[in-house]
Amino acid sequence: MAAAKKIILYGAVVFVLYTIITSPAKAAELVQVGFEGISSAAQGVGEFMTQLVQ
Q: Rounded to an integer, what distance in angstroms lies between the CA atom of residue 32 and that of residue 30?
């Protein structure tokens, strides 16, 4: 089981490096989309907590 996790982790790292090297603009776009998603989720939690307190 541990060996499978290592293989999957190494595969993911290789994929990320390959994406960054072959298409830096696309990689930057994907990172931006990820951060926008995190920001939206945080805003949603903040709004929920605000409504909960009121």
A: 5
What pTM does this model have? Answer: 0.59
pLDDT digits (tens, 9 = 90+) for 4-50: 899 999 999 998 899 889 998 988 898 899 999 999 999 999 999 99
**Tally of CA atoms within 13 A in the half-sphere of 47 that contains its CB:** 6
The C-alpha angle 20, 25, 30, rounded to 5 degrees, equals 75
What distance in Å separates the CA atoms of residue 17 and residue 24, rounded to the nearest whole number? 10
DSSP 8-state class, residue 7: H
Annotate 8-43 with DSSP letters as a single string.
HHHHHHHHHHHHHHH-HHHHHHHHHHHHHHHHHHHH
